[in-house]
Amino acid sequence: MLCMKVEIWSDVACPWCYIGKRRFERALAQFENGEQLQVSWRSFELQPDAPQVREEKLVALLARSKGMRPEQAEALVAHVAEVGREDGLTLDFDQVRGANTFLAHQLIHLAGAHGLQDAAKERLLRAYFSEGAVVSELETLVRLAVEIGLDEGSAREALTGGTFAEAVRADEQEARELGVRGVPFFVLDRRYAVSGAQPVEAFLEALRAAWSDAHERTEAGGEAGAACGADGCDGPS
């Protein structure tokens, strides 16, 4: 039986990654061979040198980093939040606490070792964007780990000991080799690439094309969707 691999490079502190995840899930629900896909989440830190916790509010940070006026930054954030609402998500940017995501990525790898990777990714995104959780804090991550079904002691040991630190770095190195510049970035069967939070229809079309062409190398084209990069996140198109 043909089984197709889908790899998604993504960060926790990326609104378009959350939106893209939800849209991809909707496409997956419509895809005729969805049960034969193996989906894995790969690590990508938008700002690997970010402090453990940012005290600066998101709008102020965005205005400073992108050279925007405060009202421009507020409008951009409001638009992204509205796009999220249209996809059934709550993006509460007033609560968002910017943080380093290296440890959160290690939790995703730990969860993957127990068949809970998607649950960890979903829980982290909701905690970050909807609940104002600081996803760099050990105790926060241990709590989230327990919520998705991981053992508290094992999670604490893995996170404090850096058990999956090299796995995160390996994902990021592979992203560089693939030329990934922003996330989310979807790789289908190592033949097709889909960049950004594309519409559901675009994801579905790519899945069907990759599936039917599973044994023939094809380079995907098309315009990139909204994404986040080292310099910040795009506004909605």
From TrEMBL:
Q: Which Pfam families match?
A: DSBA (PF01323)
One MF term in GO for this entry? oxidoreductase activity
Q: What is the lineage of its organism?
A: Bacteria, Pseudomonadati, Myxococcota, Polyangia, Polyangiales
Superkingdom of the source? Bacteria
**What is this protein identified as?**
DSBA oxidoreductase
For this protein, the record's CDD domains field holds: DsbA_FrnE
Q: Which Gene3D superfamilies match?
A: Glutaredoxin
**What residue stretches are annotated with the DSBA-like thioredoxin domain?**
6-207
